[in-house]
Specification:
By secondary structure, the protein is of the alpha+beta class. The chain has six helices and nine strands. It folds into two domains: 125 residues, Nucleic acid-binding proteins (OB fold (Dihydrolipoamide Acetyltransferase, E2P)); 76 residues, no CATH class.
Length: 223
């Protein structure tokens, strides 16, 4: 007779695949980026498994998961970190020097899903190396690299007050992200492009917009 296996509660997805990686050296039942794959592919500019065309001093955006963080000191005694970063196609080491480390240290944790803006350093036929310049969580990156912001204006009693509040917010956060309004009219949706305002998006700004009109009525577009 086969032994009866004990009944156990299934682990949280992130915990399960992290243990798979530690035990097997690879992810078996899924990948940490699965839930954000479409967003990451829209935001990033290069995959770690396809770096043959990169040249020295290129600026790139890489999306992936941190599998290891090693902190050390430079020859001048300044703190730095070497981050092993993995996406669907491969992995690479990313160097994070003191000035960047000071600003983004809170994000550099094992299993963290990040988008990293990096500068390429490359010598002739060697594999490229990456030096981090900006580091964002996935939610921060969604806001930071949005190309358009779609706002659904559903009928509501205080619509005029809401529009005035949005206009004030837009005026104080001017940028280059296009603003589109989706308006319900006679049972159909109309799309109106703002000619007056463009927005500098951030997680804080999007949070304010969502508080005004609701989470479901705000959508970032990356293409």
């Amino acid at each position: 007779m086969e032994p009866k296996l004990p009944e156990v509660i299934d682990q949280i997805f992130e915990e399960k695949i992290s243990k798979e990686k530690d035990l097997l050296g690879f992810y078996a039942s899924g990948h940490p980026l699965d839930q954000e794959r479409e967003v990451i592919e829209s935001i990033t500019t290069v995959s770690l498994g396809d770096t043959s065309e990169l040249i020295d001093q290129d600026s790139v955006r890489i999306g992936g998961v941190v599998t290891d963080v090693r902190r050390q000191l430079t020859r001048k005694g300044k703190p730095m970190a070497t981050v092993t970063f993995e996406d669907y196609t491969g992995s690479s080491e990313i160097l994070v020097f003191a000035d960047v480390l000071e600003n983004y240290a809170r994000s550099l944790l094992k299993d963290a899903k990040l988008v990293i803006v990096a500068r390429v350093t490359r010598r002739e036929e060697e594999e490229p190396k990456f030096i981090a310049e900006e580091i964002y969580t996935i939610e921060e990156a969604k806001a930071r690299f949005a190309r358009k912001l779609l706002i659904h204006l559903a009928p509501q009693p205080n619509l005029e007050r809401t529009l005035n509040a949005l206009e004030d917010l837009f005026a104080h956060h001017n940028g280059d992200v296009e603003i589109l309004f989706r308006v319900e009219q006679n049972g159909q949706d109309r799309f109106i492009r703002s000619r007056r305002y463009r927005l500098k998006t951030s997680l804080e700004v999007l949070t304010q917009v969502r508080r005004m009109i609701g989470d479901k009525n705000v959508e970032c577009l990356w293409q």
